[in-house]
């Protein structure tokens, strides 16, 4: 089972937006504003403007990278092995001698160029990574101050003031000061969703509240986070639905339960599809080759479906009408 939880390769996302001011001449790039040249072509590469306010473009000269603003001012000199702009913040990550640091859009250094990885900011904190030689994680604040030491084996980043972290092989929850909120005792732990967090111990999963109380017993082979008051859970090889007090709303009999769409979800048994509603009631038996839930039931109460290779439609009772 694949588990995606912690930041491993911490990176920045590039978003291309509005390249109207960029122009090329003789294989070099410059900038125009209102058809007036404000930066003569000199760069080998120029990205579109990026960042939260679309104010920064990455530029390249030879093998080195930097950044300019919309006036053509070089706010980050072209001396770095790479530069990238965080899509959610107006901050710029640079790489020099294989180490990373962060600058703001005015060229002020926020995080020293000393880390092997840096995340975008979340709730005023950025996760930083050092490989020395083993990989460890910590956090810096908006000023670049290291507020959580780089000692954690894994660190998820903060959500609602809480982060999952691994220390000495065990996972728990910490606040922004590093205070242990929920003990480091789990093999895996996931961010809170709708007030509950999924945790795993001894190959069994369940759910805890923000006090650490196990409100749904760790008895499932696999689970999914709560969404709209429901969570998918699995024992052995079959899936079912539970509510936030752990009541099983469906028998655990399905090979697969797809994500709810318009208050219905596809369920699968032996490669045949049916439908359940948000109460867990099976409204259409798993008899169909395919059911198209993208638009939900139409105004006449029908949904596209395929039965034994024949296309048609079903109503809310599961009655199938083949296409003419």
Topology summary:
Blueprint: E1 22-25, E2 28-33, E3 36-43, E4 45-46, E5 57-61, E6 64-68, E7 74-80, E8 82-85, E9 91-96, E10 99-104, E11 109-115, E12 117-118, E13 126-131, E14 135-140, E15 146-152, E16 154-155, E17 163-167, E18 170-174, E19 180-186, E20 188-189, E21 197-201, E22 204-208, E23 214-220, E24 222-223, E25 231-235, E26 238-242, E27 256-257, E28 264-269, E29 272-277, E30 282-288, E31 290-291, E32 303-307, E33 310-314, E34 320-322
Antiparallel strand pairs: 1-2, 2-3, 4-5, 5-6, 6-7, 8-9, 9-10, 10-11, 12-13, 13-14, 14-15, 16-17, 17-18, 18-19, 20-21, 21-22, 22-23, 24-25, 25-26, 27-28, 28-29, 29-30, 31-32, 32-33, 33-34
Give me a quick take on this structure.
The chain is mainly beta and 324 residues long. It has strands spanning 22-25, 28-33, 36-43, 45-46, 57-61, 64-68, 74-80, 82-85, 91-96, 99-104, 109-115, 117-118, 126-131, 135-140, 146-152, 154-155, 163-167, 170-174, 180-186, 188-189, 197-201, 204-208, 214-220, 222-223, 231-235, 238-242, 256-257, 264-269, 272-277, 282-288, 290-291, 303-307, 310-314, 320-322. Helix content is 0%, strand content 52%.
């Amino acid at each position: 089972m694949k588990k995606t939880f912690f930041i491993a390769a911490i990176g920045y996302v590039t978003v291309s937006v509005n390249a109207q001011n960029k122009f090329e001449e003789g294989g070099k790039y410059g900038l125009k504003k209102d058809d007036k040249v404000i930066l003569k072509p000199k760069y080998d590469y120029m990205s579109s403007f990026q960042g939260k306010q679309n104010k920064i473009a990455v530029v390249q000269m030879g093998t080195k990278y930097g950044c300019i603003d919309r006036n053509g001012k070089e706010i980050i000199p072209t001396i770095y092995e790479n530069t990238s702009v965080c899509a959610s913040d107006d901050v710029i990550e640079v790489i020099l001698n294989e180490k990373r640091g962060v600058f703001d859009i005015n060229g002020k250094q926020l995080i020293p160029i000393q880390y092997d990885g840096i995340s975008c900011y979340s709730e005023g904190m950025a996760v930083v990574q050092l490989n020395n030689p083993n990989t460890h994680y910590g956090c810096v604040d908006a000023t670049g101050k290291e507020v959580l030491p780089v000692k954690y084996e894994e660190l998820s980043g903060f959500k609602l003031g809480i982060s999952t972290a691994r220390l000495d092989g065990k996972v728990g929850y910490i606040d922004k000061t590093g205070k242990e909120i929920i003990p480091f005792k789990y093999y895996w732990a996931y961010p809170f969703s709708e007030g509950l967090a999924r945790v795993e111990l001894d190959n069994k999963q369940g759910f805890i509240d923000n006090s650490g109380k196990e409100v749904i017993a760790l008895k499932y082979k696999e689970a999914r986070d709560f969404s709209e008051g429901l969570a998918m859970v699995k024992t052995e090889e079959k899936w079912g639905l539970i509510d936030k007090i752990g009541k099983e709303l469906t028998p655990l009999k399905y090979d697969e339960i797809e994500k709810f769409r318009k208050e219905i979800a596809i369920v699968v048994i032996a490669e045949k599809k049916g439908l359940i509603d948000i109460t867990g009631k099976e409204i259409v038996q798993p008899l169909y080759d395919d059911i198209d839930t993208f638009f939900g039931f139409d105004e006449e109460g029908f949904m596209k479906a395929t039965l034994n290779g024949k296309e048609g439609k079903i109503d809310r009772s599961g009655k199938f009408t083949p296409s003419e």
